[in-house]
Amino acid sequence: MSDVEPERVGPRLGVVNTSFMMGGALGLAVLASLAAARTDVLLSSGAGSLVALNGGYHVAFAVGAGFAAAAALLGAALLRAGAPAPTQERVSVTSCERATPGATSRR
Amino acid sequence: MYAIVNGNEAGWRSVQTIGLLATAGALLVIFLGIEARVRAPLMPLGLFRQRNVATANVVGVLWAAAMFAWFFISALYLQLVLGYEPAAGRPRLPAVQPDHGRLLARPFRQDGHAFRHQGAAQPRDCCCAAAGLALFALAPVDGSFVAHVLPGMTLLGLGAGMAFNPCCCSPP
Question: What predicted TM-score, i.e. pTM, was given to this entire model?
Answer without folding.
Answer: 0.74
